[in-house]
Specification:
Elements (H helix, E strand, L loop, with lengths): L3 H22 L5 H20 L7 H19 L8
Length: 84
Amino acid sequence: MTNPFLFTWIVLSLLTLVSWWLDASLDGAWIGTAVLLVAFLKARLVFMEFMEVCSAPSGLRWACEAWVVVATAVIATYWLAPHS
């Protein structure tokens, strides 16, 4: 494929299907976390491709990358908390 927008749209669509599949077919406490992690990956793709952050000034790019990393880390810390 030569069109990066089309490729990104296909990947986003496939990730949406993966989220639906995870939610519908599996059971467990980690499913919500997995779906949120997929959502953050999708957000990064939208930032970089459709919002053209990849060609923006480095400060904006690093701020968007940091947001994705921090949001993912916050979700990941859920598993560090004690559960009863």
